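Per reviewer request, we include the raw input and output of the structure prediction for the construct analysed in the revised manuscript.
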Amino acid sequence: MSEVQFILHAEPRSDLGKGASRRLRRAEKIPAILYGGDADPLPITLSQDEVFKALEHEAFYTHIITVKLGEREEKAVIKDIQRHPFKPKVHHMDLQRVSEKDTIQMHVPLHFVGEDVAPGVKQGGLLTKDLVEVEVRCLPQNLPEFITVDVSALGLGEVLHLSDLVLPAGVELMELLHGHDLPVASIHKKGGPSEAAEGDEETGEG
């Protein structure tokens, strides 16, 4: 986990319901809920501007966030974000409390490196990315912002699976825990089976 820190200033809210939420949004506020842990769910209000600036950073989505409620602080992660259908605004957020001693499950993005030097690509192959994120289980302090997928040694016709990934210490992949060693990336010839099938469909339509 990087040293970057995200802090959201929140206020408890008692005025609930759709009408109250609409009033908050008109005031550039976001209705949200903070839940989990040993405490009851707490309806809160967040700043639209503060949240939107934080959302510009990819790390915000997979980071332990400090929620400040006056003098009190809670550690949480983002579990759900509801956005306006066309305006750059957030409608609602779900935040889950985290504890240093309890594991959490989160989806984190995959960052692919080495495509330009991969032997299969140099031979004219095409890299296919089968996954763009994975679900991990770990303690909050071990939560990675992303997982690096190194494809620099991948040859033509070869496949990289979840079990081939190098994981940070203390991090487990949920799919592997369930016995699913899914493909992450592969390199195949251009005009391979998938592209040929698309070409056949276009010919049939013609």
